[in-house]
Amino acid sequence: MFIDLLIMLVMAYGFGFLYYGLYRNISARVHGRFGPSLAQSFYDSIKLFTKDTSTDFGWMFFAGPIIMASGAILTVLFIPYFNHGERLVGLSPYGNLIVVLYFMVLGPLGNALGVGSHGNPFGAMGITRGLTRLLGLEMPFYIAVVGLMIANESADIGTIMANQAETYNIIAHPLLFIAAFISFLGFLGKSPFDVVGAPQEVYSGPAVEFGGKFLALALSQSAIFSFAKLLLMVDLFLGGADSLWDLILKTFVLFVASVFVGNVYGRFTTAQSVDFLLKVPTVIAIVGLLFV
Amino acid sequence: MDSKLIKIFHGPQHPGITGNMSVELDLLGETIKYARTHVGYLHRGFEKLVERRTVIQAFTIVCRICVPEPDPNEENFARAVEGLAGIEISERAKYIRVMVQEMSRLAAQMLWMGGQSGSIGMGTVGQWSLFDRDLMLDLFEELTGGRVYHMYTYPGGVRRDLPEGFLLRLSELLDYLEKKLPKYDSIFFDNATFKKRAIGTGVVPKEEALKNGYVGQTLRGCGIRRDLRKDNPYLVYDKLDFDIPVFDGGDVYSRALVRRGEMRESIKILRQVIAQMPAEGAIMQKLPKHRKFTLPKEDIYVATESARGEFGYYMAGDGTEHIRRMQVKGPSLIHGFTLLEKMLIDEELSNVAMIMNSLGICPPEIER
Amino acid sequence: MQKGFVAYNNEQKSLEAETEGIKNSQTLIQKAMNWFSARSMFVVAYGTGCGAIEMPPVFTSRYDIERLGVVGVATPRQADIMIVSGYCSLKTLRRVIRTYEQMSEPKYVIALGSCTINGGMYWDSYNTIKKLEEYIGVDMYVAGCMPRPEALIEGFVKLQESIRNNTIQPGYVKYREDYAYYQANQEKLLGKETQPVYEEDYAGMNLS
Predict the structure, then answer these.
(1) How many contacts does A have with B, using Cβ atoms within 8 A?
(2) What is the DSSP-derived secondary structure letter of residue B316?
(3) Per the CB < 8 Å rule, is B15 touching A268?
(4) Among A165, A236, B102, B256, which is least packed by CB within 10 angstroms?
(5) Helix/strand/coil for A56
(6) Chains that touch C (3 or more CB pairs under 8 A)
C-alpha cells in the first residue's frame, strides 16, 4: 500500500515534468523552432531548488506553497491510475469523486494564503483573478461530473470506470465531455483562460514574489496537479487505463489536444473568460444533463 | 487619495510595456481610474549631442533615435541637410531610398505584429512574424552591413550601390511574404479571441483625433485619410501607385486592419520600385570635404511617414560646420503622453499592453 | 616581441593550471549544482536600452535560445540572469540596481553593447553612465553596437562554460564582498536614495 502511494507520487512527478517538457517541445515545433531538451523542466526545477532564498514575508508565505503542494499530492493519491483495481489505486477506496473535487480547490486556496502575506499588489490581483476564474470553471465541470454520477448511480471513480467497459463515456455522453474538456483547459491554465499568471498583465501573478525554492515547489506542484487532472479526465471519460502504455497513450492524446488549443488562441480577459465559461460550456453541460 | 484604489507601476521592468517606460495606474478592482505616464528612462540628450558634432559625425547617431525603425530618421536627416545645403540627388538614389523606407516599414510592421499578438498571449504569431522580419533584416545586412542600424541613407544619396542580384532576392522575399500574409490573417487578424478583445477597445473619437494632432494609424484607424506619402510626396512617391487603407472603428482592431493593409501596400510599392528603378545613375553626389561641410544660416522642417506616423525634423544651420539646432518630433510623442493617459481611464488592466502596442509607442523617440 | 610572447604564453599556462585546480577541488555536489545552474537560465525581461531590439530575435524562432535552456521570466525574483541591454540613463540605473538586488543568488549579469563598456556612442552624453561595472557586478560583456544575436548567444555559451567549470569569480560575489566600493559609486551618482526605504510597516510585519 505504502509502496503503491510512493510509486504513484513518483510517477505523477515524472510524467508531469515529462509532459511539461513535451508541451514546450510541441509548442516550439508549432512556432517553427527546435525547442529545449525534454528534460529541461527537470533541470529548471533542480536548479531552482539549489538557489538561495532572499525573501521573508512571515511564516504564512512559507506555508502557502506547502499547502498548494499538499493539495496536489492528495488529489493525485485519491485518483486510481488503472481500471483493474489491483495496483496503483492509492486511497481511492477511501474517498470518492466528491473528495477529489474538494482537494482540487485546495491548491488555489493555499496559493491565496501564501500570496496574501506579501504586500505585492500584482500577486493579490493574480489571486483575485484565479478565484474569479475558478467560479466560472467549477460550474460546467461540476454539472458534467454530477451528470456522470447520476448516469452511473455512484460517486465512486472505480465504479464509473468499471461501467465503461463497453462504451466510453466520451461516446455515451459527448456533451458532458465537451463541457468538462473546456473547463479542463481552464484548470490547466492554458490560453484562452490563462488570466492568472499573464506576464503582460499582472506580472506573472501569484508567483510574482516566489523565487528559488518556492518557485521550484510551485513548479513541481503544477506538474503533479496537471497530471492528476489528466488522469481524472481519462478515468471519467476514456474508461481508465488497462496498462502503462494505455495510460500514456490516453493522457498524451488529451494533453496534445489541450496544447494545440493553447497555441492557437489568445487570452481572454477575466470577465470575458468567466462570461464564456458560464455561457457556452455550462449550457452544453445542462443540455448533456438532460440527456442522461 | 481614495483608500479603495490600488496603485501599481506598470513598468519599466515589466513584460507588458513597449520599451523602457512606466505607467502609474490607480486601480479599482481591475478598472483603471487614473493613469499617468513616466518617461525619462532613455534620455540621452540627442539634440545636444548633435550640436557638438559636425554634420557627417551627427549622421552616425541620428539612426539611434528610434530603435525599431531607424531609417525614417536617416531619411529625415539626409533630406534636411540636403535642403539646407542645396544638394539635389539622382533619380536612382531616390528610388533606392524609397526601397529602404518601404523595407523598413515592412520590418517594423512585422515587429508590431509580434508585440500586438504577444500582448494578448498569442505567442505563435510573434514567433512567425519575427522570423519573417529577420529575413528582411538579412537583406538589410547585405545592402548596408548592419542588421538594425544601417547608416545607409547619407546626405547626398546613399552610401553604396546595390549588390549584384539584390533586387532579385528582394522580389523572392516579397513572393514569400505574399504567400505568408494570408496565414497571418487566419491565425491573427481573423482569430476569434483577438476580435473579441480588440473590437471596441481603446477607441479614439474622430473629432478628437484631428484636434489633438494624432498621426499615423491612430488617425487612419478612425477614418481620416492622411498620409505624408500622398499629401506631401517626397522622393518619388508621386510616381508610384498605391492606396492608403482607412478604417472607421477607431479601436484597436481598426488600427490592426490598417496595418494589415499597409503591409500589402508596401509590397506593392516595392514591386513597382523594382520594376521602375533606373539602372544607371550616380548613387552619391559630390560633397565638400567632411571638415568643410558647412550649413547656411537657414532653417528647414522635413517630415517622413514612418511605420507609425509622421516623423518630423526641424534643423537650423548657422554658417559653421556644426548644426545649430535639431529638433525631433516622433509619432509617439503625443500618443505616449496625452492620448495614453486619456485612453486608459476606465479601461481594464488587461488591455494596457494591447493599447500601448496598438498606438505604436516607442519610448526612445519620446525622450531622444 | 619574442620575449613578450613567451611571457604571455607562460601567463596563459599558469591561468589554465589555476582553473584546472579550481575545477578539481570542487566536490561532486558543487559540480552538479554548477552544471544545473549552467543548464537552466532564467532571464529577467528588462529592456533597458537599444539592445532590447535584438532580444526578440534571440528568443524566437530564428535563433531560438531556448535550446540552451535560456528562458525569459517576468520578475527578478525568479531570474538568474539580467541582461542590461545598452546604455543606462541615471533614472534607469536606479531601477537596474533595484532589480539586481531583488534577484536571488546565484545571479549573473550580461552587459550588452559597447555603451555598457565605455559609453560607446554616448561617450559624451550628460545623462548616461559610462561603465556599468562600477555600479553592479558584471559577468559578461558583449561588445558591438548593436551586437548581433549570434554574439549574444556566444556570450551565453561562454557564461555557461565558466559557470560549469567555475573558472571566474561571479559578479555577485564581488558585489557582496566589495559592497562599500559599489555603494560609494552608486551614492556618488544617485544620492543616498538608491536603497528602498520602507516607511510603513505594511501587512503587520516587522521589517526591521
Answers:
(1) 86
(2) E
(3) no
(4) A165
(5) coil
(6) A, B
CATH number at C24-190: 3.40.50.12280
Question: Which range of residues forms the domain containing residue B232?
Answer: 67-320
Please check whether residue B15 touches A, CB under 8 A.
Answer: yes
Contact C151, C57 (CB under 8 A): no
Sheet containing B6-10: order of strands: B6-10, B22-28, B31-38
| pLDDT, position C206 | 43
Other chains touching A, judged by 3 or more CB pairs under 8 Å: B, C
Is any Cβ of chain A less than 8 angstroms from the Cβ of B195? Answer: no
Q: What phi and psi values does residue A182 have, to the nearest 5 degrees?
A: -65, -45
In terms of Cβ atoms closer than 10 Å to its own Cβ (0-12, 13-18, 19+), residue C120 is: buried
Query: A181-194 pLDDT, tens per residue?
Result: 888 888 887 777 88
CA dist., res. B112 & res. B104, Å (int):
12
pLDDT at C20 (0 to 100): 65
Residue B146 belongs to domain with CATH number: 1.10.645.10
pLDDT tens across A68-100, in order?
Answer: 888 888 888 888 888 777 777 777 777 788 888
Low-confidence ranges of chain A (pLDDT < 50): none
Interval C20-47: pLDDT, tens: 666 666 778 888 888 888 888 899 878 8
CA distance A201 to chain B (A): 5
Q: What is the pLDDT of residues B149-185, one digit of tens each?
A: 888 888 888 888 888 888 899 999 999 999 988 988 8
| Secondary structure of residue B321 in the 3-state scheme | coil
Q: Bridge partners of C83?
A: C110
Of the candidates A31, A125, A192, the beta carbon closest to that of B123 is on: A31
| Cross-chain CB nearest to A34 (options C64, C71, C74) | C64
The CA–CA distances, whole Å, from C169 to A6, B121, B171, C159 equal 42, 39, 51, 12
Domain of residue A146: give its range.
2-291
Does B283 fall in a domain? Answer: yes
B159 belongs to a structural domain: yes
Place of cell 577541488: C25
Average pLDDT, stretch B189-200? 86
Whether B311 is covered by a domain: the verdict is yes
Identify the three-state secondary structure at position B56: helix
How many domains does chain B fold into?
1
B260 belongs to a structural domain? yes
C108 close to B (CB below 8 A): no
Backbone angles phi, psi at B20, to 5 degrees: -95, 75
Domain ranges of chain C: 24-190
Give the integer Cα–Cα distance in Å for B31 and C100.
31
Half-sphere exposure in the Cβ direction for B163 (13 Å, CA): 11
